[in-house]
Amino acid sequence: MPQLAYVDGRMVPLRDAMIHVEDRGLQFADSLYEVCAILNGRLLDWPGHLARLRRGLAALFIDFPMSDAALGIVARRLLAVNGQREGLLYLQLTRGSARRDHGFPTTPSPSLIMTVRRFDFAQRVRQQATGVSVVTVNDMRWRRVDLKTTGLLANVLAKQDARAAGAFEAWLVAEDGTLREGSSTNAWIVKDGRLLTHPLSESILPGIARSALIDLARGAQIAVDERPFSLAEALAADEALLTSTTAPLLPVVRIDGQAIGTGTPGPVAARLAPLVWDEIERQTGWRA
Fold this sequence. Notes:
By secondary structure, this protein is an alpha+beta fold. The chain is 32% helix and 28% strand. It has 2 domains: 4-119, D-amino Acid Aminotransferase, Chain A, domain 1; 124-284, D-amino Acid Aminotransferase, Chain A, domain 2 (Alpha-Beta Barrel), CATH 3.20.10.10. It has helices at residues 24-28, 46-60, 68-82, 122-130, 153-164, 208-219, 231-235, 267-284; strands at 4-7, 10-13, 31-39, 42-43, 86-94, 111-118, 132-138, 169-173, 178-182, 186-191, 194-197, 224-226, 229-230, 239-243, 250-255, 258-259.
């Protein structure tokens, strides 16, 4: 059976899935997206993804009439028809198709597409033992990166810089030297046993995994400071790590080629990792 995608009310073979040439998501990045982990056939942190999507829709003035309950039914049906047990659900919601004009169409009809693909989460467990490296690049993104829009060109270029350097991720640095987040991850450092991450603002994406880690850390009596920190602080940190939907927690052992701490995954990351996987197991029943 061919893999199926969901496009505006229809399940269609992925190879036949398409949108209109004048879709505003294609022409203006006038659209939002979410990526949700599928583990043991279940959606991880689904309510958090829905809440972030609804917040973005309100900010962009996109009126999408489908209820959260109906959206969940469609998403789970797509997983079922594809037989997907471990992977990623990609959801994209655009303002719809209209004659190309910068202003909103007078009668917009939002367009919803969803796809699924396999993803090996067990690889992340293995990477926790060695850690990953990151490079830093200047943050060139627009000023509302707290909205998960499909306008990701600056993120794409940053990720390509990382790959060209043989690194896992690129961390984005503001003009004042503040280290904000990664091209597709949230950034963390550890100093004197305290976990630091950039506070929520228009300058970072409110990551679902970020929120989960804060709750888990505080529940384990690990102090968390949500405050800006500089690249210089990161280089002098005892540990560093990153989080995202596809990387629930990974130690960062090198930044721009410089070892962080001992150059190996540290004790705070080692303490947090099982808490993260225990929470994933609690929600989905999945265990590596």
